[in-house]
Amino acid sequence: MKFNFKLWIEDDEGKSVIGKGGVELLKAISTTGSISKAAENLNLSYKFAWEYIRKIEKEVGGVEMKKGGKNAGGTNLSPKIQEMLKIYDQAQEEVKKILEKYTKMIEELNDVK
């Protein structure tokens, strides 16, 4: 047995804004500079990725989408979004380490007969 968790960022009303998938999508956009390339790399539909990014832009801001066709558009992430991704990763690692501690305690308890 082990502890597990899912981590997401939510708005003031408790609605999820960015979860693990959104973080992966934003990181892929940061790498590729494109929603369509990021979606392709993650095996997501462009429509799904675009709608997710629009939701993030509406709630958080910091996603600059340039219109254009092939070789003309692109997407940039602001320093705020880049920092938010770093904070998310830090929180993910911190919670993981804490839960590993408690998982070890559960495993030790299971070893007691």
- How many domain units? 1
**Global Rg:** 18 Å
CATH fold category name: Arc Repressor Mutant, subunit A
**CA(first)-CA(last) distance:** 16 Å
CATH class: Mainly Alpha
What strand order characterises the main sheet? 1-2
How many strands, what sense, and barrel or not for the largest sheet? 2 strands, antiparallel
Structural class: mainly alpha
Shape: elongated
Number of helices: 4
Give the helix level as a range of percent.
55-70%
CATH architecture descriptor: Orthogonal Bundle
The low-confidence parts are none
SSE series:
EEHHHEEH
Mean pLDDT: 91
GO molecular function, one term: DNA-binding transcription factor activity
InterPro entries: LysR_HTH_N (IPR000847), Molybdate_resp_trans_reg (IPR051815), WH-like_DNA-bd_sf (IPR036388), WH_DNA-bd_sf (IPR036390)
Domain HTH lysR-type: 24-61
Protein name: DNA-binding protein
Description:
The protein is mostly helical and 113 residues long. The chain has one domain (9-111): Winged helix-like DNA-binding domain superfamily/Winged helix DNA-binding domain (Arc Repressor Mutant, subunit A, Orthogonal Bundle). The protein has helices spanning 20-32, 35-41, 46-59, 79-111; strands at residues 9-10, 16-18, 63-66, 74-77. The strands form 2 sheets. Strands 1-2 form a two-stranded antiparallel ribbon. β1 (9-10) and β2 (16-18) form a beta hairpin. α1 packs across α2. The protein is elongated and about 65 Å long. The model has no long low-confidence stretch (mean pLDDT 91).
Q: How is the secondary structure organized here?
A:
Elements: E1 9-10, E2 16-18, H1 20-32, H2 35-41, H3 46-59, E3 63-66, E4 74-77, H4 79-111
Antiparallel strand pairs: 1-2, 3-4
